[in-house]
Design brief:
The chain is mostly helical. The chain folds into two domains: about 5-85, no CATH class; about 90-300, no CATH class. About 55% of the residues lie in helices and about 5% in strands. Strands 1-2-3-4 form a four-stranded antiparallel beta sheet. β3 (about 210-215) and β4 form a beta hairpin. The protein is elongated.
Length: about 300
């Protein structure tokens, strides 16, 4: 068998490579060729090759086997989470597009029908359509993809975000800087994807309309709903998204610290803008589960 040096392992730089390429490239058997690997290390190496050659489904199969073999292996959990997202084309570009929609991209003047809805005090989108820009969520492809993959996002949350970052931070810290950086990006994608999908569902199910108040001291996202109960439901979903956005910013900074670069700078900029828009609303109570990564966040901020 060839030595590890002959494998020609190369870590590919960049956000897309971190999320989709999976890291190192090996010389293991290609899809459908040669015997199937059996050991965890061999399975990991073959999964990297499969991802690098555009076969994410094969990578998922290999990593599912590795996880069944050793469910405590942290690297397997990171790699499997990454492959599961790659197989569904969920990446940071999907996240950035969804955030941009809520930040006001593609808004339109508020409709007249908003007069009949229950809005926050002083908000009259129907009377000031140029000030209150309607933020339509139903037709946005990025938000739809997050909404349609909630089960997958929840699995990765259990597998990695809760299963590793929250419960086994010491084990996570033993990974290479590149693998840790990948893990932080997976955490951002998972947390934001779950809550963006929930906001979309709450808005559509309650027939609520979101507006961006463009004449406030800073742009504010407001909700107008048919009933008080509906507006409360949407407001709670937005508050949870606000908490998750703050957590995502901490994780992105931790990711950049690990690799010594600012390759996620544009996403950070979009998320900071998103956080400002959400904070402009009324104060939110801490969401259930908001303490998920608080300890990790505080550690990173203190460094």
């Amino acid at each position: 068998m060839a030595s590890s040096d002959s494998y020609g392992r190369v870590w590919v730089a960049g956000v897309v490579s971190l999320l989709l390429a999976g890291g190192a490239i090996g010389c293991n058997v290609m899809d459908g060729l040669g015997p199937s690997p059996t050991g965890v290390d061999a399975l990991l190496a073959d999964a990297r090759t499969a991802l690098a050659n555009g076969h994410p489904q094969r990578a998922v199969r290999l990593l599912e086997t590795a996880h069944e073999t050793d469910s405590t292996n942290v690297e397997v959990r990171v790699a499997l989470s990454n492959a599961l997202y790659a197989a569904q084309d969920l990446d940071v570009f999907t996240l950035r597009s969804a955030v941009e929609r809520l930040n006001g991209k593609g808004t339109a003047p508020g409709p007249e029908s908003s007069r009949k809805r229950i809005c926050p005090e002083g908000v009259s989108p129907g009377r000031s359509p140029q000030r209150f820009r309607s933020v339509a969520l139903g037709g946005d492809e990025a938000l739809r993809r997050f909404a349609n993959h909630q089960e997958l996002l929840h699995r990765v949350f259990r597998l990695f975000v809760d299963g590793v970052l929250a419960r086994r931070p010491g084990a996570f810290a033993t990974l290479s800087p590149e693998m840790q950086a990948k893990g932080y990006l997976l955490a951002v994608l998972t947390g934001m994807g779950r809550h963006l999908g929930r906001v979309r569902a709450a808005v559509l199910e309650t027939k609520t309309t979101l507006y961006l108040d463009t004449e406030a001291a800073r742009s504010i996202l407001v909700a107008c709903s048919p009933t008080p109960a509906a507006r409360t439901l949407v407001s709670e979903a937005l508050c949870r998204l606000q908490d998750e956005t703050q957590r995502a910013l901490v994780w992105l900074q931790a990711r950049n610290d690990q690799v010594g670069s600012d390759q996620t700078g544009l996403l950070i900029e979009k998320l900071r803008r998103h956080a400002e828009i959400l904070r402009g609303r009324s104060s939110c109570k801490p969401a259930a589960g908001a303490r998920l990564a608080d300890a990790l966040s505080q550690d990173r901020l203190a460094e």
